[in-house]
Every structure is written in structure tokens, then in C-alpha cells.
Design a protein that fits this description.
Blueprint lengths: L2 H24 L1 E6 L4 H6 L2 E3 L1 H10 L4 E5 L2 H10 L4 E3 L15 H10 L4 E5 L4 H4 L4 E3 L4 H6 L7 E4 L2 H11 L4 E3 L5 H4 L3 H10 L4 E4 L6 H5 L8 E3 L2 H10 L4 E5 L4 H8 L4 E4 L14 H10 L8 H16 L3
Parallel strand pairs: 1-2, 1-3, 3-4, 5-6, 5-7, 7-8, 9-10, 9-11, 11-12
The structure holds 1,3-dihydroxyacetonephosphate and iron/sulfur cluster.
1,3-dihydroxyacetonephosphate (13P) binds next to helix 3.
């Protein structure tokens, strides 16, 4: 092994030791999203999708929660766990999807549909959640919408592709969907997806509902090609359940680490190699160490917003598997 690679390994091992020590002495846990870089996933106390992270945070008895993910995930933990200190290692770790709607826009949309129920994807700011009736994640969006009176109009925001998927699965025609998107998932284009499917006809296709290619992928010739639209934890479960040996995965490529680790005998091919979330990848082991050591950066939500955002978030954690 080259000298610099050995040195890098030693630095990483020393960092991991330091983090583990800080975690123990500070009564902290690290929650990592499925898109986090591999070394962070390997070190975390919990790795999962947005819904599982929120539920884990709520049940944790630790004093400090370090969220290795993006800002709305830390905000969600702060809203659900007001008695804990919630930290994010880099305040710049935002989300392009959460940026696609503001609280002012939600208020204006509600004014146009005063009787509608507002369902917000968890990828939103606390201020947007505070104006919502329900929150959901990609794991339970269908279950959340099915829990709402079929006669009531729904405003679904901000993800257009997830909203369209939910409308398709539930067969509801009274859902209005906001035009927002995640630039990473929207970048997974249908052409590269279709090409991969033709190259690997033996593969099962796993598609995240935030993907712009979902509609085209669903129209692929059905002969022998199973296709499932799933959240990231849903993909992990399906990879274990399925008897297929090869999978084409249409989501952020960080998920491949866990898929491969938990299924060493199977092959996972990204639908698009460059589907990398720049915000998720701002988090590093160094920043986690600094975050634990200095107890920074604290994520807090003003009480007036927190109280209102708690209602839709509590509904979210209670609905669905
Ligand atoms: P899930 O892990 O909930 O499927 O979320 C995907 C995502 O884009 C999170 O930012
Ligand atoms: Fe946001 Fe997309 Fe990154 Fe998820 S992958 S955090 S939705 S920008």
C-alpha cells in the first residue's frame, strides 16, 4: 500500500477513536442518513431514512444528538425532542428541495384553497411545517394521504414527483401538487435509466419517488423487469427480500454503501453514477469530531414555530411502517 494511503488510514482510525471517545463522555449519539459517506455510516449509532431517523431521535435517551444529514433532518429532531441538544456538523448542509417552497408561498396557496388539507414532505423548513396539517416522508407518503378523508382536497408540497406518485398510487384526483424538485433526483434522467435496464435485463429496478424518471421507468416494458418505487429504507428491505442478484438503483449513490454492505453476494448498479448530493457530502468525520467536541452547531427552533410544527410531525411519526 502506498505510504500516503497508510497515513490516511491511520488518520481516519485516530479520528474514529476520538469520535467514539467523545460520544461516550458526552452522552451523545450519531444519526446518519442513508446517503452519508460510508465511513460516517460505519461509525454512526443509527443509519436510516428520514422517517426512521426521526423515530430514532424521538426514542433516544441520549443528551446530544448529532445529525449526520441535512438541516431539515436536524430541525425535525429538534422539534420532536425539545429536551435534547441537537447538533449539525455543518450549517451549510441544506436541501434544494426544501428551498423550493417558502412559508409565504404556502400561506398564499392555502388562501386559494381554504378547505384543503396541507401535506408537507419532511424536506421542508420548520416554518413550512408550522403551516401544515400533516408531514410525511417517502416511506409513508401514501399511508399519510390514505389517512385523510377522501372528500377533502389536498395540497401536497413541495416535491412534484413524489406528489404525482402518491396521486397515482392512491388514485385520488383531488391532490394539488407543488412544482418543486430535488436537483439530485431530477438529474437521474430517464434515458440513462432505460439504457441501464436494457444492458441488464436480469436486474430488478429500485426507484426513489423523488426521481424525475419515475414516470418513464414505470412505462418500461414489463416483461421480466420488476420495478419498485421505494424510499431508501424500502430499497434496503427489498434488496434483502428479493431473490434477484442484480439491482439498478435510482437514487443518491450514498445508499449503495449500505446496500452492498448488507448484501455482499448481490450487485448494485447506480442508475446514474453522478447522483451525489452536495449537501449530504458536506459532512465529514472531522466536522463530526469538531461538532461533538465544541457542541456546535446547535439547531434550535423558536417555540412559536416548534409548537405548531410538532402537530404534523407527530402525525408523521405515527402513520405507516
Ligand atoms: P428518504 O431517505 O426518506 O427516502 O429520503 C430521501 C431524501 O432525499 C432525503 O433527503
Ligand atoms: Fe435534498 Fe435532494 Fe440532497 Fe435529499 S438528495 S438532501 S432531497 S438535495
Amino acid at each position: 500500500m502506498a505510504e500516503h494511503a497508510v497515513a490516511e488510514r491511520e488518520t481516519q482510525a485516530a479520528l474514529q477513536e476520538e469520535i467514539l471517545h467523545l460520544k461516550r463522555t458526552k452522552d451523545a449519539v450519531i444519526l446518519a442518513h442513508n446517503y452519508q459517506p460510508g465511513p460516517i455510516q460505519d461509525l454512526a449509532d443509527y443509519v436510516g431514512d428520514s422517517l426512521a431517523m426521526a423515530r430514532f431521535a424521538q426514542k433516544s435517551s441520549a443528551r446530544l444528538l448529532v445529525v449526520a444529514g441535512v438541516h431539515f433532518m436536524a430541525e425535525t429532531a429538534a422539534i420532536l425532542c425539545p429536551d435534547k441538544t441537537v447538533l449539525i456538523p455543518d450549517l451549510e448542509a441544506g436541501c434544494s428541495l426544501a428551498e423550493s417552497i417558502t412559508a409565504e408561498q404556502v400561506a398564499a396557496w392555502k388562501a386559494e384553497h381554504p378547505d384543503a388539507v396541507v401535506v408537507s414532505y419532511v424536506n421542508t423548513s420548520a416554518a413550512v411545517k408550522a403551516l401544515s396539517d400533516y408531514c410525511c416522508t417517502s416511506s409513508n407518503a401514501v399511508a399519510v394521504v390514505e389517512a385523510i378523508d377522501p372528500e377533502r382536497e389536498i395540497l401536497f408540497l413541495p416535491d412534484f414527483y413524489l406528489g404525482s406518485h402518491v396521486a397515482r398510487v392512491t388514485g385520488r384526483h383531488n391532490i394539488h401538487v407543488w412544482w418543486g424538485e430535488c436537483h439530485v433526483h431530477a438529474g437521474i434522467d430517464a434515458d440513462s435509466m432505460v439504457e441501464k435496464v436494457h444492458q441488464h435485463p436480469e436486474a430488478e429496478v429500485l426507484v426513489h419517488p423523488e426521481c424525475g424518471c419515475t414516470t418513464r421507468a414505470l412505462a418500461l416494458p414489463p416483461e421480466g423487469i420488476p420495478l419498485k418505487v421505494l424510499s431508501t429504507d424500502g430499497m434496503i428491505a427489498e434488496s434483502k427480500r428479493s431473490s434477484r442478484k442484480t439491482f439498478i438503483v435510482a437514487t443518491e449513490v450514498g445508499l449503495l454503501h449500505r446496500l452492498r454492505k448488507e448484501n455482499p453476494d448481490k450487485t448494485f448498479l447506480p442508475a446514474h453514477e453522478e447522483a451525489l448530493c452536495p449537501f449530504m457530502n458536506l459532512i465529514s468525520l472531522e466536522k463530526i469530531r469538531d461538532s461533538l467536541r465544541d457542541e456546535r452547531f446547535r439547531v434550535e427552533v423558536p417555540d412559536s414555530i416548534r409548537q405548531r410544527a410538532l402537530i404534523p410531525l407527530e402525525r408523521m411519526v405515527q402513520i405507516g411502517k
